[in-house]
Each structure stands twice: as structure tokens, then as C-alpha cells.
Amino acid sequence: MKRIQGVKVPLTCSEETLRSLLARQMRVSPSDLLSWTPVKKAVDARDKRDVHFVYTFDVTLTPHAEKRVRLTGTVTEVPAPAVLARLSPVPPADPPVVVGSGPAGLFAALTLCESGIAPILLERGKDVDSRQQDIERFRTTGQLNTESNVQFGEGGAGTFSDGKLTTGTKSPLIHQVLETFVRFGAPEEILIDSKPHIGTDLLRGVIRSMRREIQRLGGSVCFSTALTGIRRAGHGYDLSLSGGGMLHTDHVLLALGHSARDTLCMLRDFGLIMEQKPFAMGVRIEHPQALINQAQYGAFAAHPALRAADYKLSARTPDGRGCYTFCMCPGGYVMAASSEEGRLCVNGMSEHARDGVNANSALLVGIRPEDFGSDDVLAGMHLQRRIEEAAFQAGGGGYLAPVQRVGDFLSGQATTALGDVLPTYRPGCTLTDISRIFPDFMVNDLRIGLREMGRQLCGFDMPDALLTAPEARSSSPVRLVRGKDGCALGFDGVYPCGEGAGYAGGIMSAAVDGISQARRILERMASA
Q1: Which end of the chain is more exposed for a tag (fewer CB within 10 A), N or C?
Q2: How far apart are CA 11 and CA 220, in angstroms?
Q3: 457 φ, ψ to 5°?
Q4: 2-77 in CATH: which number?
């Protein structure tokens, strides 16, 4: 079987036309092609006069053609799939404990279960269905349920996001993660899309199915259960749980998520070595999705074969921090990601259809440790909190989000009336001047970024586009330092993991880190 890359395919293409395209590119007869399977699919819209798809296919040829096809830069042998070494772990007396059920925690727990080791999975929030009820209550009434740490949007809880699966990670585990999502109900198209996406509406069912499989394989899932304390006990650890429970284990995997601030404080006091790390903060920017489609696809904007367009933009700033877009949500909604009383944070999501009126994206400025204002290892977290408190006050309470038109933000005046773009955030918004929320360097860089990105993408800096503040949790401002064995330095058997620990930047990289850390635990058990 041969793999052929870079195949240009028209937006509308018959099977026979595609057969001819493949045959011509491989220099064989169309009759020599027995079958072809798409491996990767992307949209090429660089030339607005010729928007098309670019595919990679695995092609089965007749034996005669298979022997005479010349291998080139675009035609290669299909690589052998990556195969992980099978492990034979010795079950421990006490099950491993996985703290957190975001993508890192879920994939770690599933990896352990599928190797015959049944973990205890601690989830400080509620189950998916109860969380959805809390979300709808919040969006209607503005009542935040902090007892279950309810968070909404990608930054709030990785498994309650819209399931964007793009990543810069090159790990061989990437395809395994995608296949796992499909196995539990995600659409098969994510296996080939260059920018795979599940959607909040479908992701809920996928997460529910993964959790049920963990339970079927013997794992335990404890909802509304937070890790409140940890102390050494013999060769292992005693874990204190909310509600007064206790667990003993020799293996604890910390998949906290970057919003588990109280747990980070507890772990610092316990003595885990942490370090400050750069992250980013900013706003959510909303445009009409039709404008983004037109800017990206030109005359092809309404073509039925094309989905809602996205973008990825960046701008240099004189101070070197930079400004960039992140977590772009075509046809999406600005959501709440608040998890603490009196502090407001927003994020974004899309459903699978991506058919909302607005597009939104994070518009972020790089934040350096020297911006934190303190040598305290959690100073970045405290900076996030100060900005979230200022946003809550600017919104007037009740978790109303502060909003400003781009034109007003650029001219330095408060917004008093909306234009053509209406906000999607619920329970509601307050028109204001968001520059009061952020440090001056962030305001300056956001303005520079907006103007530069307006030159890159027509209409990006349109005056009626909306800025909703703040997007404060793009990634963790702290890293739990671990050694080559994956354990926290000085704490044998404690495995920091995922985004909250500072080792991932999204669903895919967090899931990969969860699998990798779980395998380290399994390797340790296998050698016991």
C-alpha cells in the first residue's frame, strides 16, 4: 500500500474525478487503483480564487502497479503503526489514585484500567448531566455553584469544553487519543481532519462513555470529591478528601487542571517543588461568522462543502511579549469559566455544527514571570485572581461580563451602545471600558495586536466587534517540577500531570501526558 500526500481536490468532486487525480499523480492507470482511504484532510484557502481541499490518501494498487510506482517526496510506503510495548503490571495492595478527570486524568485512568489496574478517580465536580444542569442554571440566573467547582468552557474544565483537538505535539500517542475518542462516540472525521473538533454537544456523551468504561473495567469514580490534604505514610501517602474521607496509596497521579487553585496551595504547603512559568491572558473577541467566512474563503464563502471558517493570528509587540489568537471557536459562544466567588473569567466553545451567528477567539498577551509582581511561586495565580476580581467589579456583580466594542477600545473610550455584533455570553453583559481591568502593558499590546491582525484578516479590527473580559486561564501559571521518572522531585510515587501541572496546553497534549504518566506507573508496577 502506498501513501500519497498533497492531493489537491476540488470542493465538489466525483469518485471518478478523484480516481483520475490520484492515478495521474501516481503515474498509473485509473484501473490500477483498487481503493483509497483518506488519512488527512485540510482546506487550502490561500488563493481565494481557488479554494480547495488537500488530502493525504492511503492507496491500494494492483500488484503490477504496486511494483512499478516510483517513491517520491509525495508518494511513500505506508508507515507501520506505532505499537506500545505491552506491560504486565503487578496489582498493588492499594489502588492508584487519579486526582482530576480532565483529559489527562481520564486518559490516565483508562490506560490503567485497560492494563488491569483499577484506579480510584477523584472528580471534585459533578457528573456530566448534573454539570449541564448547573450550567443552564448559571446562564439563566447567574448563580455560581462553587461547591462542585462548576466551570464552563475550555479553560474551566477540559472535559467540558468544545473538544478542539488541534495540537503542536508530535507524539505517536496522538492517533491513539483520536481513536479512543472515536471509540467512545466522537465522529470518525476527527481521524482525518487537520483541525479535528468534536463539539460540546457531542463531547458530553463521549466523556460519559469513557467514564462508564473505566467503571466497567473496575475503576471507581468519586464525584464531588476534592483532594484536601496529603501526607507521607510509610512508603506511600495518605490522602484527605472533602467530606472527611481518607485513602492510602503508593501511586497518586495529580491531573489537577489549571483552575484547581486551592489544591495547588495545599500542594505547595505540603512541599511539592513548583516554579513560575509564562502563560497568557486577554479577552474573547467576537465577530459575525459570515465576516470570517468571507475573509477566509472569498467567493467560496457560501459553498456547502466548507464549514465555518477559522483563523490563527499573531502580532509582534515592541515589548517582546507578543499578541496572538488562541482557541478559536467558529460559530461559537463566549462562556463563563468562573470557579470562585467574586471572580469572573470567560472562555469560548462551539457545538459540533458550529452554526452560531458569531465567531469568537481568545485574544491573548504573553505574561512573563517578571510581570507577576512577586517571587511567590503562585504569584501568577494571584495576578489572575486580581484581574478576575476587577472584571467581576467592572461587570457590576452577578457574573455579568464587561464588554467593549473594538472601536471604543482602540480609541480609549467606554462603550455605551452596541453595534451590529451582539454578545453571546450569558447571563448577560455590562458595557464599559475593559482597559481598567488589565495592566497597562496588556492594554497596549492588545491594541497593537488588534491593528496588526486587522491587516492580516480583513475586518478583524472592525469597530463593532466585541471584546469580553477576561480570558485569564489559557494555561497554568505554575509548573510542578518532576524528574526523569515522572515523579515530583522528592516525592516518589507522586506523578504531576497535564495542563494544571504545567506540562500540557490543550486537550490533546494533556491526554498524551496522562497516558505517558500512567504508563510510568504501570512500568513501575511491572518491575516490582
Answers
A1: C
A2: 47
A3: -130, 115
A4: 3.30.70.2700
Task: Write out the residue limits of the CATH 3.30.70.2700 domain(s) in the chain.
Answer: 2-77
Q: Which three cell numbers stand for residue 297?
A: 474563503
Per residue in 231-268, pLDDT (tens digit) is 999 999 999 999 899 999 999 999 998 888 999 999 99
Q: Which residue has the cell 472535559?
A: 159
Spatial contact of 373 and 436, defined as CB atoms under 8 Å apart: no
Distance CA 498, CA 166 (A): 16
The residue behind cell 483499577 is 118
Residues paired with residue 249 on neighbouring β-strands, in sequence order: 237
DSSP string of 204-268, one letter each residue: HHHHHHHHHHHHHTT-EEETT--EEEEEEETTEEEEEETTS-EEEES-EEE---TT-HHHHHHHH
Cα–Cα dist 116/94, whole Å: 14
Question: Beta strands of 435-501 (E only): which ranges?
Answer: 466-471, 478-480, 494-496
Residues in the chain: 528
Residue 407's closest CA among 450, 357, 458?
450
**This prediction's pTM:** 0.93
Contact between residue 91 and residue 525 where contact means Cβ atoms under 8 Å apart: yes
- Pick 97-275+480-526's CATH classification: 1.20.1640.10, 3.30.420.40, 2.60.40.10, 3.50.50.60: 3.50.50.60
Model pLDDT for residues 422-457, shown as the tens digit of each residue: 999 998 999 999 999 999 999 999 999 999 999 999
315 close to 354: Cβ distance less than 8 angstroms: no
Q: Which 3 state secondary structure label does DSSP give 53?
A: strand
